[in-house]
Amino acid sequence: MATPKNDKAKNGWISHGLVAENRRARFDYEIGDTLEAGIVLTGTEVKSLRMGKAQIAEAYASPEKGELWLINAHIPEYLQANRFNHEEKRPRKLLVSKKQLAKLDQEVARAGNTIVPLKLFFNDQGRAKLLIGLGKGKKNFDKRATSRERDWNRDKARIMKEGGRG
């Protein structure tokens, strides 16, 4: 039996696996290095993530004051929480080593580089992690080439599935 993308228990909560994915990132950016970073969350944010609700499509990471911050990530409020709920788009601290932070800071200082979140997931220990990548923005002709290559791969797979009968 194939394992699903998300491992949801009986109650519908994600114990480990993918929560959110930035599918546009690889289209809009040429991703170089990737890095797995921890993320500092409050209790209601974790519960909201366990329900599988988060959006990182418009988010980015920024090194500020010797720390790495996730900006503009949307984690909706946990409806069962009362007055202790969190802000939906608050900046969240990312946990990386000083060496990794220095490298990312140096790369961002270069023109055109951005730290892009790629995937938000729970690892095997049940901790929330964020896969971030160092991206350089693509030009329009690069995006067209990516789209053309993706279409050709789809057509090629269809032709191979049909047994070469074009």
TrEMBL record:
Localization per Swiss-Prot or TrEMBL: Cytoplasm
GO biological process, one term: trans-translation-dependent protein tagging
Pfam families: SmpB
Biased composition (Basic and acidic residues): 139-166
GO CC annotations, alphabetized: cytosol
First-listed, main subcellular location of the protein, grouped into a coarse class: cytoplasm
A GO molecular-function descriptor: RNA binding
Keywords per UniProt: Cytoplasm, RNA-binding
UniProt region (Disordered), positions on chain: 138-166
Purpose: Required for rescue of stalled ribosomes mediated by trans-translation. Binds to transfer-messenger RNA (tmRNA), required for stable association of tmRNA with ribosomes. tmRNA and SmpB together mimic tRNA shape, replacing the anticodon stem-loop with SmpB. tmRNA is encoded by the ssrA gene; the 2 termini fold to resemble tRNA(Ala) and it encodes a 'tag peptide', a short internal open reading frame. During trans-translation Ala-aminoacylated tmRNA acts like a tRNA, entering the A-site of stalled ribosomes, displacing the stalled mRNA.
Similarity annotation: Belongs to the SmpB family.
Listed PANTHER family: SSRA-BINDING PROTEIN (PTHR30308:SF2), TMRNA-BINDING COMPONENT OF TRANS-TRANSLATION TAGGING COMPLEX (PTHR30308)
Protein name as catalogued: SsrA-binding protein
